Amino acid sequence: MDRAKFYATFRNNLGSLTQPNVVGFELFLSEGERRQEPINRLAYVLATVWWETGKTMQPVREAYWVGNGNEAVAENWRRTHLRYYPFYGRSYPQFTWEANYRKASDTWNTKYRGDGPVVDFVKSPDLIMNPTYGVPLTFDAMEHGWFTGRDLADYIDTADESDAEDLREFKEARRIVNGVDRANDIGMIGLTMERSLKAAGYAC
Question: Which of 5, 33, 51, 204 is the most buried if burial means most Cβ atoms within 10 Å?
Answer without folding.
Answer: 51
